């Protein structure tokens, strides 16, 4: 095999490359301005190196290219470890990306000139593949700087890769998608940039495989870093599939992202290129009406001024691209902007009054030249459309807001002319309604014809509505115009054909023209009476609109015509009854609209009493849903005290029987009346208040609608905070509802109650004490709910419940709020012992309740969190210590974590109240009358059978224990606790001792013994054995807490020794007999026990 022959110029090329490549990169890192020159120089060097090859057996070896690539990689190795922010490294990375683009463009030009196949391998493609394979090795580097620089380089060159192998492309794609979950934010940003450039070349994905675009959309929506989301928003290609996700970023938590969506995405993509005639993906005509509404509502409603300004700029851009240029010879300035406004309004839903108004006002504010040059000539008013009428109305509102009266006087017609235009539009509307009714009667209309008639009618209604809203802001100093407008509106309200959508707008004009509220009420009452009287007659009156110059064309005023005598209700036909119901419903709407526009009460306006008795109250009692629904919002009527007191039970009775939508209105009325007239209810109808509370509390559980439950919770919360409800039951019910798993999905109710309990607890010391009293009841209820949970249901944990109550009952927080508000009187002083009392209640519960392990742990872990005041009542401290030691002796805590928490609390109590507990004597405590109840409770606690400690080698035996009256020790913390009566015989091992307590302090002399005061043991049952030898009975003396005299001890049993000896007396306990050594025989001990029990 012949050896390989090196090309003559290979060594020289290697030397040349090793000198020139570092020099080129050194220049590139100093400034971006010389990059183009260095790109050309590096390309010439690569071209020269590509000519250097070596002949081998299987072909040619590209020696020159390999030398060049190694030199490039050697330079890159010096750049990769540099952290972000090093400017020379950033320039080198940019230079590499630029060179990849440059060399691939040159290769493409060469292929086009030579006519070579695009799939042929080139120097550029081999160089690009070499770089990518090199970068692949660093994707999983442990050094975050290396990963960042590699991905930055890939992001720079990925748009200009040219032709690469399928395997290299697949590996690049998968490696980038894997790095999307990198823990470093800077790395993820470069991944997003690279993937966004790669997404344009992505082919169809396999079924079930995530595409690059889906990954980028997911990153844009859910990545925790604002920088990563921002990179995704700016680099994600915008099209129909990604537009919805990009529009969702208008509600992003980051202000910069929201602003960039409007300025860098939506506004720049309105048109394609520099030609405004080619629609882009965010052109208003390319968007749906829902998308346009979302953009305007979120942009103009944003809390940041910069975002609102960006949204206003986008709207101005929309106006420019949809506007039409002025016709030839037309001299009207800024025609394109005006037509653009009208065209933009045609793309919006004008029925949604809020956001179209905001859009036009923002355009007037950001483009003031449009407002200043806008004019409304005669042709404008003659050819009104809903969009032009809307524009005129908003124009007037903007002029009123900016006090630009000069502009308003220049463009608006006088009041009389405006009244005639409204009258003309209303005549056309009634004609269209009559034509539609006639067509429906004579022929069967097709669906298209019905839509045509409905669209024409709605268009006229919209025009009249906009003109009426405009009329509210006109100048009514002209008395003739004022009278004309007043008569026109009054006559319109008296027409049966007046659409419901125009009723409130007519009342707005009538309110503006009325001198006072009383005059407005009088006019509306007359209208209601005229409508009811006129429409219940046998004949129909003619209500034709006549065209006259100075008069309205509605004919005579209805009030001047005497109505015929109506038929009695039983004699009315079905058609007459339906017509009467329609009129009654319209009258109810009139009353609702009128009451919403006045601030007076029934006492001040006696004219309301007639319609109240004849219309409103009968409508409330009707069973038809439409009447009850329309009548209930008349809450202002129920401000009248006698009516409110007498009618509230009617509303309460209807609540459980009504549908959810009507329940909301009824509850609003009930709670409003209760809050306003609570004093009158308690004075005249006190029995109704418990009924109301019971109904509301039942509804809080039984209501099917989450909205209704939230409304009940809100109403009860307001009543409690206002002090109108002082009972504990509603608060306890709200607590249970707040913590119940059934309200987990009712976020409105949960949010309301979260705020309520914070305000309730930190507003009054009495409220804080109330919450403390309810803790155990609430905890037990939550425990019961937790036991009935399904597998897929969740609930707040016991530890969270205790943490909540420890926070709510913290007196330090209440004191801080009181001090901040400057309330220093005694009424607002925090009760510092509220958590001390809570600790006592928790200890009593631990003694008398059979809590599970988790519940006992949560309760004991709560105790150290409670605040113990520096000074406390002696009796309370004594109670606390009695309960703590009783828990230790009668209910010992087995769990280590629970015991540690209780020990921590116990140590804190003993340390803080050491002085008060120095002279602690049970005998003295039992003489205190205030502690009688406590000792009765303590004495009633039966120790658990498992509480007694046994030696490791001794079996547990059942037997009878006796209880003495004494359960306490006089020792304080640090005192030695001893027990007596336990002895051992022979080889038996001593058993572990249970703590015993004495009445006296520990004596300094070791020979002195303390008198025993042990709690009598519970009854044991000893199994009967076979015949045993009887022994003489031994006399046993058991001390009691009340026996203080010396006694003669019984002779000690043979083989037993006592641990403590006293000269005057000796004591043998019952346990020492039962737990004696087995060496003397179990049978003998059993007989002794039976004989002793028989003597007792």
Structure, described:
This protein is mainly α and about 1100 residues long. About 60% of the residues lie in helices and about 0% in strands. The protein is built from 47 helices and 2 strands. The protein has a two-stranded antiparallel sheet with strand order 1-2. Strand 1 (about 55) and strand 2 (about 60) form a beta hairpin. The radius of gyration is 46 Å and the shape is flat. The termini are far apart.
The number of helical runs is 47
Q: Beta-sheet strand percentage?
A: under 5%
From the N-terminal CA to the C-terminal CA, the straight-line distance is 118 Å
Q: pLDDT below 50 for ≥5 consecutive residues: which ranges? A: 1-6, 328-333, 538-567, 630-640, 947-1082
Largest sheet: 2 strands, antiparallel
Number of strands: 2
* Spatial ordering of strands, largest sheet: 1-2
Question: What's the helical proportion of residues?
Answer: 55-70%
Supply Rg.
Answer: 46 Å
Q: Sum up the overall morphology in one term.
A: flat
Give the mean pLDDT. 77
């Amino acid at each position: 095999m012949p050896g390989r022959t090196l090309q003559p110029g290979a060594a020289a090329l290697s030397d040349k490359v090793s000198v020139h490549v570092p020099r080129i990169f050194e220049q590139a890192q100093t400034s971006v301005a010389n990059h183009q020159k260095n790109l050309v120089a590096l390309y010439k060097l690569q071209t020269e190196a590509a000519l250097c090859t070596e002949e081998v057996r299987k072909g040619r070896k590209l020696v020159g290219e390999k030398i060049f690539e190694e030199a490039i990689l050697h330079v890159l190795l010096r750049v990769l470890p540099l952290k972000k922010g090093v400017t020379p490294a950033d320039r080198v990375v940019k230079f590499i990306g630029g060179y990849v683009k440059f060399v691939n463009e040159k290769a493409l030009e060469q292929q086009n000139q030579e006519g070579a196949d695009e799939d042929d391998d080139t120097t550029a493609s081999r160089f690009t593949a070499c770089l990518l394979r090199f970068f692949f090795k660093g994707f999983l580097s442990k050094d975050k700087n290396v990963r960042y620089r590699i991905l930055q380089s890939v992001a720079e060159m990925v748009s200009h890769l040219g032709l690469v192998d399928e395997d290299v492309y697949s590996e690049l794609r998968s490696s980038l998608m894997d790095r999307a979950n990198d823990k470093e934010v800077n790395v993820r940003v470069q991944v997003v940039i690279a993937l966004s450039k790669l997404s344009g070349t992505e082919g169809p994905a396999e079924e079930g495989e995530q595409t690059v675009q889906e990954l980028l959309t997911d990153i844009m929506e859910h990545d925790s870093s604002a920088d990563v989301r921002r990179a995704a928003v700016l680099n994600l290609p915008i099209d129909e599939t990604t537009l919805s996700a990009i529009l969702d970023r208008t509600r992003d938590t980051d202000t910069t992202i929201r602003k960039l969506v409007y300025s860098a995405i939506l506004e720049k993509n309105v048109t394609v290129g520099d030609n405004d005639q080619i629609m882009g993906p965010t052109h208003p005509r390319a968007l749906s009406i829902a998308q346009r509404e979302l953009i305007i509502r979120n942009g103009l409603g944003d809390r940041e001024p910069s975002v609102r300004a960006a949204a206003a700029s986008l709207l101005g851009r929309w106006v420019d691209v949809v506007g039409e240029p002025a016709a030839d010879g037309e001299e009207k300035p800024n025609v394109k902007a005006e037509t653009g406004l009208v065209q933009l309004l045609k793309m919006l839903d004008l029925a949604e009054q809020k956001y179209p108004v905001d859009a036009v006002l923002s355009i007037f504010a950001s483009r003031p030249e449009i407002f200043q040059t806008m004019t409304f000539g005669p042709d404008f008013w003659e050819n009104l459309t809903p969009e032009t009428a809307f524009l005129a109305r908003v124009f007037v509102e903007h002029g009123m807001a900016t006090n630009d009266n000069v502009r308003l006087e220049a463009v608006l017609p006088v009041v009389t002319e405006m009244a005639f235009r409204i009258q003309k539009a209303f005549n056309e509307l009634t004609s269209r309604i009559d034509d539609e009714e006639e067509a429906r009667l004579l022929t069967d209309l097709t669906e298209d014809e019905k839509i045509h008639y409905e669209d024409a009618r709605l268009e006229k209604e919209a025009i009249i509505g906009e003109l009426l809203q405009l009329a509210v802001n006109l100048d009514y100093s002209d008395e003739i115009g004022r009278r004309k407008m007043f008569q026109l509106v009054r006559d319109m309200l008296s027409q049966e054909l007046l659409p419901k959508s125009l009723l409130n707008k007519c009342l707005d004009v009538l309110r503006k023209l009325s001198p006072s509220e009383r005059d407005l009420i009088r006019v509306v009452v007359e209208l209601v009476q005229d409508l009811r009287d006129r429409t219940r007659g046998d004949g129909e009156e003619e209500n034709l609109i006549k065209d006259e110059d100075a008069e309205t064309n509605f004919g005579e005023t209805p009030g001047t015509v005497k109505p015929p005598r109506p038929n009695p209700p039983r004699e009315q036909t079905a058609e007459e009854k339906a017509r009467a119901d329609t009129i009654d419903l319209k009258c109810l709407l009139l009353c609702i609209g009128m009451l919403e526009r006045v601030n007076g009460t029934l006492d001040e306006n006696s004219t309301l009493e007639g319609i109240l008795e004849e219309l409103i109250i009968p409508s409330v009692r009707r069973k038809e849903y439409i009447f009850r629904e329309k009548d209930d919002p008349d809450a202002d009527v129920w401000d009248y005290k006698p009516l409110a007191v007498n009618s509230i039970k009617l509303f309460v009775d209807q609540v459980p029987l009504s549908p959810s939508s009507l329940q909301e209105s009824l509850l609003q009325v009930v709670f409003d009346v209760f809050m306003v007239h609570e004093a009158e209810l308690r004075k005249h109808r006190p029995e109704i208040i418990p009924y109301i509370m019971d109904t509301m509390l039942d509804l809080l559980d039984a209501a099917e609608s989450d909205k209704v439950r939230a409304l009940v919770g809100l109403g009860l919360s307001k009543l409690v905070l206002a002090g109108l409800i002082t009972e504990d039951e509603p608060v306890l019910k709200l607590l249970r509802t707040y913590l119940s798993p059934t309200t987990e999905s009712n976020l409105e109710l949960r949010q309301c109650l979260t705020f309520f309990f914070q305000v309730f607890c930190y507003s009054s010391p009495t409220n804080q004490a109330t919450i403390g009293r309810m803790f155990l009841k609430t905890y037990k209820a939550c425990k019961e709910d937790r036991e009935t949970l399904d597998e897929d249901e969740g609930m707040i944990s016991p530890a969270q419940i205790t943490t909540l109550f420890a926070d709510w009952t913290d007196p330090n927080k209440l004191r801080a709020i009181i001090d901040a508000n400057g309330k220093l009187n005694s009424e607002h002083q925090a009760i510092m012992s509220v958590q001390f009392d809570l600790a006592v209640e928790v200890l009593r519960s631990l003694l008398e309740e059979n809590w599970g392990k988790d519940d006992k742990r949560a309760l004991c872990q709560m105790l150290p969190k409670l605040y113990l005041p520096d000074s406390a009542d002696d009796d309370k401290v004594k109670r606390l210590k009695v309960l703590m030691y009783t828990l230790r002796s009668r209910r010992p805590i087995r769990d280590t974590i629970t015991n540690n928490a209780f020990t921590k609390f116990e140590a804190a109590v003993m340390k803080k109240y050491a002085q008060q507990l120095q002279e602690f004597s049970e005998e003295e405590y039992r003489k205190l009358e205030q502690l009688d109840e406590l000792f009765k409770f303590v004495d009633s606690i039966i120790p658990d059978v498992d509480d007694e400690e046994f030696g490791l080698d001794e079996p547990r035996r059942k037997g009878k224990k006796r209880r003495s009256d004494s359960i306490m020790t006089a020792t304080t913390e640090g005192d030695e606790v001893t027990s007596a009566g336990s002895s051992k015989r022979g080889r038996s091992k001593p058993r572990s001792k249970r703590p015993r307590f004495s009445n006296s302090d520990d004596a300094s002399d070791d020979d002195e013994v303390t008198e025993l005061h042990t709690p009598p043991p519970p009854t044991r049952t000893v199994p009967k054995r076979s015949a045993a030898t009887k022994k003489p009975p031994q006399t046993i003396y058991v001390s009691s807490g009340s026996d203080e005299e010396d006694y003669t001890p019984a002779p000690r049993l043979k083989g037993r020794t006592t641990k403590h000896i006293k000269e005057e007396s000796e004591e043998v306990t019952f346990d020492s007999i039962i737990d004696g050594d087995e060496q003397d025989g179990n049978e003998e001990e059993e007989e002794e026990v039976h004989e002793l029990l028989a003597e007792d």
